[in-house]
Write a structure and sequence with these properties.
Largest sheet: 3 strands, antiparallel
Distance between the termini: 30 Å
Number of domains: 1
Order of helices and strands: HEEEHHH
CATH topology: Sufe protein. Chain: A
Number of strands: 3
Radius of gyration: 14 Å
Shape: globular
CATH architecture: Alpha-Beta Complex
Strand content: 15-25%
Number of helices: 4
Length: 150
């Protein structure tokens, strides 16, 4: 196994076991629920936005290591960003994981590159993208992530 792939695997395991921003935000200004019926992953993403900036994010729920790691790394990446940047990260992440465009990793914070290989495992793609679709739903005022998001 290459050193980079091993490093990515360790990052996913660490974030899956010890997710960052795994908390409730009672004062959230927007939130959404996401569910992946294929494997049972469930997440709630809650945001505090001031103007166009995401000043805090929390998520709760239960899911596989990939789902939890994706939510954790996503939360770190978008905290402090604008809605526009968060949406751009969403598009690049989907391009990376769903469409297999590895060059999309260059437009994302480095930790998100850990998900480059997920597309090789079609059953895990929705696990990795659930948090992102739930984030999009929250940002656009929807209460639930679309079935496309899990």
């Amino acid at each position: 196994m290459s050193e980079l792939r091993e490093l990515y695997q360790e990052l996913i395991l660490d974030h899956g076991r010890h997710p960052r921003n795994f908390k409730d935000l009672e004062e959230a200004t927007c939130s959404a629920d996401g569910h992946n019926p294929l494997c049972g992953d469930r997440l709630q993403v809650r945001l505090i936005c001031e103007g166009d900036t995401i000043v805090d994010i929390g998520f709760q729920g239960a899911g596989c290591a990939i789902c939890m790691a994706s939510a954790s790394t996503m939360s770190e990446a978008i905290k402090g960003q604008t809605r526009v940047v968060a949406h751009q990260f969403f598009q690049h992440f989907i391009g990376l994981v769903v469409d297999g465009r590895k060059e999309e990793a260059d437009a994302l914070p480095p930790k998100l590159g850990a998900f480059t290989g997920v597309g090789e495992f079609p059953m895990r793609v929705k696990c990795a993208t659930l948090a992102w679709h739930t984030l999009e739903a929250a940002l656009y005022g929807h209460k639930r992530a679309s079935s496309e998001g899990g």
